[in-house]
Model the fold of this input.
Amino acid sequence: MAELSAAYQFLRRLENRLQMVGDAQVHRLPTDEPTRARIAHAMGVADWAAMLGKLNAHRERVGRHFKSVAFSGGEDRDGGAIKVDLGRFWDSQAETAALRRGAVQGRHCASR
Done:
């Protein structure tokens, strides 16, 4: 859960920085070097390559967690495939509640 929480925080910070630079609701990485340098600096890394390295590492970890949940081939108590209803996470309140639950669980796990 700590990996997902860290990825979420990083991605939200990146999104915020992208929107601050463009003063718009943008979600695309910049293509021009001056903007890339500004974003890297705002993210606290040395350069664009370092920023992309961090971004790609978070993407890989999130992808690994997603695959383990969505494609695990696990079974429920009735012997059928586990179904995960991800549609509810499109609602930001449900997402926020799940993240809070995860953060609380993470704190309990860390204190053991």
